[in-house]
Amino acid sequence: MNNKTLTNVALRYRALFLDVHLEDINMESETTATVMAFIARLKENGFCVSEQLLHALNVVSSDQLAEITECINNVMGINLNWAPLVKGWDVPTGETLDDHIFTWFANMFVKEGEIKGTTLPCGHLIPDGSFPLERYNGCPFCGTPFETTNFVYQGQASKLKELRLFTIMDVERVFDSLLSSSTPLDGTQKDSLEQLLQVFPLPEKANITMKETAMLVVKTLVNQGKAEEASQLLKTPTDILRYLWYEKTGYSQIIEPKTLVTHAAKLYYHMWGPLNDSADAAQQMKQKLMLKYDRKACLHVAQWLNAIPMTATQASENMNPKRGMWVRMIRALRLGEYSRKQGFDHLAEILDVFYKQSYSTWQGRVDKARLENDANRMLALLKERPGVFARCLFATMLRFGSNKVLNAFSEIADKLPTRLLLSLGNAADIYFNPKEIRIARPITGVTHQIEPNKLLALYDDDDCKAMVEAVNDIYKTSMFKRYTTQPTNSKSIFIDPALYCIPVNVGERTTTIQDTSCALMGTRFPIEGDAVRLFLQWGKGLPAQLLDMDLSCRISFSNGRVSECAYYNLTCIGAKHSGDIQTIPEMTGTAEYIELSLLELEAAGAKYAIFTCNAYSTGAISPNLVVGWMNSAYPMQISEEKGVAYDPSCVQHMVRISEGNLSKGLVFGVLDVAKREIIWLEMPFTSQTVQGAKIGTIEALLRKLESKLSIGELLEIKAKAQHLKLVENEHEADEAYTYEWALNPAEVTKLLFM
User: Integer distance in angstroms from the first to the last C-alpha of the chain?
Assistant: First the structure.
């Protein structure tokens, strides 16, 4: 068993994995000297332990404690280079645009010896009287660091995060909940499941309901030589295409090749104009997407399609939306050849119907009914596919009238998964507001603004409000019925007030990886002190090279003014930047910081401070880049000698960019200055600088999150349906739902999305 893997997964649930049995734990044991030393190391990283975990540590070997310490140090980045460009950067260097222009002129047009200055290892001449070189760890002109350090501050935090005990049974429970999740897995959950699939065998009766989760399992089974077992998870041709594309691209959603090629070119489009790299990137993506399969893979797909439990007509209709991709897949996989072999009769029939197009599509019949304004026919067709009906419900209500459409929808509402019903309730308020801009976030990382539906102009405000209430009544009534059917022996329930600030995680899937928590997007983090310190660390494990990532902050004021703290403006009201690094050192990476003073921001009338990271270099944000913020009621130090300002114990939230990242920029948090709290967001955008993060789009996302049903509100529906008494003390309740419980999204979805 790989204890290191299980430790990494457990840490995401604010726990430590120990290979112990509960009956072996003596709750009255004395803490050993080795355990005390281990607890001290945890405290330096901002963690403390529960009483049960403390006593469980006494039965663990010192070697395992050392291994756990190493895992935590790796996750928290203790041994990385956290030195920024400027030493003691809380005191501005006074550099100006004139310094950059003068230095550029001196290096481009002045002969050697004509200007006095210092030539740095990068080759740039820094004229005397420009940049104060004694304040820098590298070149202030090109952003190349010369000095690194493995030093970080530790133990400055005013609040520790409690870790609890995870046994093998707890990890298996997480494994099962991830497999059976009825909502799509976010980036953290997906990464955890991939790791656990390498440790645990797939349960014989695994209840896998999500198609994207099934793709991870199918890949594992194929790699283990169990392709035949995978066929039970591939029930339609689209499932097979999804797996083939996941194997090719790493994305569990089917993204058209032309979309990936176009997006690859955009990632290499520089603010100064298109580069040769842009065309090269598009060509490289085309090469990557070329379909080449060996005989073994071809046979697997032929067998899967031949075993599809659908008629040839049904299978062909299922293939039709991605017909172009299927034509190429059929050729690359030699399916025509296999269809002529004995035992592949069903495959031959499917290909025959598919190529002759001797079928009509369900979507075509729906479109025809819509064009002919045949409401009865269209609603009858939509009831055949409840999921599609849910996704087009709002537009259909506007076209054919809410009463008629909702009456038809209520007939099939109980057949829908909970997540779809909640999505409808969360989205209704914004969709039926004719003045509200909606946002869409496709997987390619481009956040789009969508204008209100034009048909809303036909309805007055009272009609729109009535439609919102009608949609809310449907999903709340449905949820009430579902909770009523759940048996329970409980009489009382405790709902943590913090859960009313956490929206139900539906429709806002995150792609970043959280190695120290599993917070839901929209979670609000209270600020304890008067300073918030943003950090960005990138380049871990990479050779020295030009790789320019930028940490920025955009501050909006109540009077409409906007200020930016970024590489081109290192100081502004309430914010200081540690300097722009453009080249990473060998293997250890590099760091940038921004310090925000809440007292200065409040005095200046600041409303929001938006945190972003961007890839200024051509390409996407670097994999393994870590970004987040620190917070403490106590002052956090900044080294005058090296400029190091990172303390793992003060980290309130951090995320890691995954390998499959497709975004150029990322909004990862918004500081609400008046409320003194940070809302964790994940909003990708395609821009090299913070200026591409549109405040209107961000505010639209905030309103969307605020309009969502909270976990606390949903638990109140459960309490009412099951006649549970609300109590104010968690220890007096039969069922207690705390903030710590909400940190495990898999358990949350298991309870709320049954």
Answer: 31
Residue 699, judged by CB atoms within 10 A of its CB (0-12, 13-18, 19+), counts as middle
Query: For the segment 658-669, what is each residue's pLDDT rounded down to a tens digit?
Result: 876 667 888 899
What is the number of H-type helices and E-type strands within the chain? 29, 27
Nearest-10 Cα torsion for 571, 576, 582, 586? 160
Give the tokens for residue 353. Answer: 């119907």
C-alpha–C-alpha distance, residues 682 and 101, integer Å? 36
CA distance 466 to 478: 18
Residue 314 sits at φ, ψ, to 5 deg, of -65, -40
Alpha-carbon torsion angle 7, 628, 448, 416, nearest 10: 30
Please check whether residue 558 is in contact with residue 607, taking contact to mean a CB–CB distance below 8 angstroms. yes
**Ordered structural domains, the chain, with CATH:** 3-76+159-197 (no CATH), 100-130 (no CATH), 211-255+291-356 (no CATH), 362-484 (no CATH), 492-505+709-752 (no CATH), 524-706 (2.60.60.30)
Give the amino acid at 381. L
Ramachandran region, residue 459 (left: φ > 0; alpha: ψ -120 to 50; beta: rest): beta
Nearest to 217 by CA among 241, 196, 186: 196
CA 608 to each of CA 120, 442, 507, 534, 555: distance values in angstroms, whole numbers, following the listed order: 40, 25, 24, 15, 6
CB-CB neighbours of 648 under 10 Å: 25
Give yes or no for a contact between 501 and 591, defined as CB atoms under 8 angstroms apart: no
pLDDT in the model for residue 272: 47
Task: Judge whether 551 and 594 are in contact, CB under 8 Å.
Answer: yes
Q: What is the pLDDT of residues 557-592, one digit of tens each?
A: 988 899 999 999 999 999 999 999 999 998 889 999
Instruction: Please tell me whether residue 575 adopts helix, strand or coil conformation.
Output: strand
Q: Is 342 helix (H, G, I), strand (E, B) or coil?
A: coil
Predicted pLDDT at 443? 61
Helix (H, G, I), strand (E, B) or coil at 727: strand
- C-alpha–C-alpha distance, residues 134 and 91, integer Å: 13
**Would strands 725-727 and 492-495 be described as parallel, antiparallel, or unpaired?**
parallel
Can you state the percent helix, strand and coil of the chain, rounding each to 5? 45, 15, 40
| Residue 557 β-bridge partners | 606
Burial class (CB in 10 A: 0-12, 13-18, 19+), 414: exposed
Alpha-carbon gap, residue 72 to 45, rounded angstroms? 8
User: What is the structure's pLDDT at 696?
Assistant: 73
H or E stretch covering 387? helix 386-391
Q: What pLDDT does residue 752 have? A: 61
Do β-strands 683-685 and 531-540 pair in parallel, antiparallel, or remain unpaired? unpaired
Q: Strands of 47-49's sheet, edge to edge?
A: 15-17, 161-166, 47-49
Report the C-alpha gap between 172 and 170 in whole angstroms: 5
Q: Which residues of the chain are modeled with pLDDT < 50?
A: 271-272
Give the DSSP per-residue string, 687-722: -SSGGGS-HHHHHHHHHHHHHSPBHHHHHHHHHHHT
- For residue 2, the model assigns a pLDDT of 76
Q: Report d(CA 104, CA 89) in Å as an integer.
A: 23
HEC states along 431-494? HCCCCCCEEECCCCCCCEEECCCHHHHHCCHHHHHHHHHHHHHHHHHHHHHHHHCCCCCCCEEE
Q: Which two tokens stand for residue 628?
A: 């987040």
Separation CA 144–CA 585 (nearest Å) = 8
Amino acid occupying residue 377: R
Look-up of token digits 């400027």: 86
What was the pLDDT predicted at 422? 79
